[in-house]
TrEMBL record:
PANTHER family: PROTEIN MALY. The keyword Transferase applies. Its EC number is 4.4.1.13. This is cysteine-S-conjugate beta-lyase. Keywords: Aminotransferase, Lyase, Pyridoxal phosphate, Transferase. CDD domains: AAT_like. Transmembrane segments: none annotated. SUPFAM superfamilies: PLP-dependent transferases. Belongs to the class-II pyridoxal-phosphate-dependent aminotransferase family. MalY/PatB cystathionine beta-lyase subfamily. One of its GO terms (molecular function) is transaminase activity. The lineage of its organism: Bacteria, Bacillati, Bacillota, Negativicutes, Veillonellales. Residues 66-389 form the Aminotransferase class I/classII large domain. Its cofactor is pyridoxal 5'-phosphate.
Length: 397
């Protein structure tokens, strides 16, 4: 399906649906008449086969207590093998309501108050919040930005921070939110070897793993160096990003190491008790097995890439000193307006002039990123054109 037909078929006006992105602007912004490009979900309906599977289940079965469906487990295992060349065992699989909750449980299970947790900055702000809410120290290690706006790790600085702060846990993000970088196997091997030397547990947030929009392939942390580090890794993902179903509260938590898995599940049992989410399992099973859902994923990635290329082309032509990071993965554009806009003017510019609700850069690492925004491109090209036009109109060279 071409991008025009896909948008006609699946794009939906979400105003009035209690959408956090469209109807919750008052939570973060000074006005409520903005074009929302902030919360990381899509403005597209999920594949029809998933919609139908959910409806069929609800019509045919009571929503009583259930056990994990073996078809769901097989679907997840087969998806990882087929899409990511990652072989996992059903015994490794446990779950959480979402990835952030899973990370919070790991913090509770594997660290103590005041322990240090490392991240590579800029990074998704919920990592910081999860650590600070649990009374842990967050150690934000800045990445380096090259002339072509790619982000890389200063491995010496990473190891120094690990040792100086006696870091216990490293939260890895791949693809990286917000910069859109897809980590290569060599990059991860260098990071993970440092963690191994210093006995640092690795949590790998791989929620954007299916959203690869450029040539760098996704490599799960579990497969790095033929799985050499898997015993020290807890990987997490969810179909919430891939198929736009964040309100179905379910994430896969993959823990190869039996001792770590038992420790995680022991902690989980003390803070959360429920049976399987049958709606989520039904949706996941169809998403990971039905040809229509895989075709939908291919098509939505084409739409996202088209939106990104339009944004880059127009902005870079009108504002040649703007800095846009290459979007290897995710549907999130990371843009630095520092050549044109002062940090203290960013909120007024976007909210009162451009009439756009972005994710502001300081949400991902503080004042060092105050001239940045993250824009969500998983919407119609018309919305991206409106946003781009307004930015060009009000950001003067």
């Amino acid at each position: 399906m071409n991008t025009i037909d896909f948008t006609k078929t699946y794009y939906i006006d979400r105003r009035g649906s209690h959408s956090r992105k469209w109807d919750g602007e008052h939570l973060k912004f000074c006005r409520i008449d903005l074009l929302p490009l902030w919360v990381a979900d899509m403005d597209f309906m999920p594949p029809q086969c998933i919609q139908e599977a959910i409806c069929t289940y609800v019509k045919a079965q009571p929503l009583g207590y259930t056990m994990t469906n073996p078809k769901y487990l097989k679907a997840v295992i087969d998806w990882y093998k087929r899409r990511h060349n990652c072989i996992i065992s059903k015994d490794w699989l446990t779950s959480a309501p979402n990835v952030i909750t899973g990370i919070m449980w790991c913090i509770g299970a594997f660290t103590k108050p005041n322990d240090a947790i490392a991240v590579l900055s800029p990074v998704y702000g919920a990592f910081d919040t999860s650590a600070s809410d649990a009374q842990r120290q967050i150690i934000a290690i800045p990445m380096k930005r090259s002339d072509d706006n790619r982000y890389t790790v200063d491995y010496e600085a990473f190891e120094t921070a690990i040792t100086m702060h006696d870091v216990k846990l490293f939260i890895h993000c791949n693809p990286h939110n917000p910069v859109g970088h897809v980590w290569t196997e060599n990059e991860m091997a260098r990071l993970f070897s440092i963690c191994e030397r210093h006995k640092v547990l690795i949590i790998s947030d791989e929620i954007h793993q299916d959203l690869i929009t450029d040539s760098t392939p996704f490599t799960s942390a579990l497969t790095v160096a033929s799985g050499a580090y898997a015993d020290n890794i807890i990987a997490m993902s969810s179909l919430s990003k891939s198929f736009n179903m964040a309100s179905l509260h379910h994430a896969e938590v993959i823990i190869p190491n039996e001792k770590l898995r038992d420790q995680f599940n022991f902690y989980k049992a003390h803070v959360y008790h429920t049976d399987s989410d049958v709606i989520a399992e039904t949706a996941i099973t169809v998403a990971y097995t039905h040809p229509e859902s895989e075709a939908w994923l291919t098509d939505v990635l084409t739409v996202i890439r088209e939106n990104y290329e339009y944004l880059c082309r127009e902005l870079c032509t009108a504002l040649p000193q703007i800095r846009i990071s290459p979007m290897d993965g995710t549907y999130l554009a990371w843009i630095d307006f520092g050549a044109y806009v002062k940090a203290e003017d960013m909120h007024d510019l976007f909210e009162n002039k451009c009439r756009i609700a972005p994710s502001f850069g300081e949400w991902f690492g503080g004042k060092n990123y105050a001239t940045f925004v993250r824009l969500n491109l998983a919407t119609s090209l018309e919305n991206i054109k409106t946003a781009t036009h307004n930015i060009i109109k009000y950001v003067r060279p």
